[in-house]
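[job 4471] stage=fold_predict status=RUNNING
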Amino acid sequence: MTTDDKTNTKNQDGFSEFEKLLEKFDYNFKKGNIVKGKVVGYRSNDVLIDIGAKTTARVPVRELSNGSLKTPQEILPQDDQEKEFLIIREEDEDGQLTLSYKKVMLAYSWKELERLKEEDAVVEAEVTAEVKGGILVDVLGIRGFVPSSHIRTKDVEELIGQKIQLKILSVDSKQNNLIMSHRKVVSEQQAEQRKSLFDIVKEGSIVEGEIVRLADFGAFVDIGGIDGLLPLSQISWRWVDHPADILSVGEKIKVQVIGIDEEKQRVSLSLKSLQPDPWDEAAKVIKEGEVIKGNVIRIKHFGAFVEVYPGVEALLPFKDLLEYQNKTNTTVQVGQEIETVILKFNIEDRRISLTTPVSYTPESFETEEKQENTFVKDEESFE
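[job 4471] inference complete, writing structure tokens
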């Protein structure tokens, strides 16, 4: 073999080895592969990436992020940090590869969301829009959906642009489906608050709360994670037809805890217990046998309730009411002022029995006890 032949063989062997390396090198830059690279520059619609290929690769602006308002320089700063990219198109006529940054980030985001769901972790997300049936949120660059039934707020529009805490109900990267819950987070937080509150709040405690709902039978007051019930009878010493006559939703009030049921997690509240007891004051000024004017508060089948002192009501039995109307030729109405006579003042039972001057006789005192017992029976039936 001549020297030239040896040289040609060596060159051929060397070229053969180079081709093998090149083939192996090209294999790493196939569509669908993950590569690492550094940012080396920017163009109007691309970010240039050095991934160790023959030419710099490009990341189109649309492949930077999923709807982010950040600039390319903010998303992919030019530094010495290597980042991962997905090859989405192989070499073009210029030998340039096309990469995606957002697809890699989304893949990591889906994986992270799956982990967070397994751990039942709380996730912070930004509310981006209100849609039919719920709201859309952005979490780790992925769009999620929160159904209306899982939103715990009074005004959904106020949430737009705000960050809220959520828990993941379901996550499916193949279907691009992420369902989340706000209510679950709030409910669990309130459960913890209730547990702590029951360790602190005792019967007789005075607490501050916010009225969250009004009903015919009373008002619900949020006292720090627990919605306590303020019954209609505990709102005021005076007669109240409906809580809305005195209270309003969103109003902050101080109330006293008068009952606690930890097993059912119920708290009973009172507003009137924080007010002076009008019966104690009435006992100082009202005497039996005294003629006193009062306003008719309400009329029932067994008689009329008359306010004889602010916050103190007494019963005028129906027969006395009827006799008064007949003798005065009037029809007594709610809100009307009439003259009454105090037959008996029972401070222990907080009951006052009445008659009217037109019905009053010394014998009235003898029948008063019977009238009062009838009143008690009728009133309890009414209650």
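[job 4471] summary: Residues 114-186 form a domain with the OB fold (Dihydrolipoamide Acetyltransferase, E2P) fold (CATH 2.40.50.140).
[job 4471] exit 0
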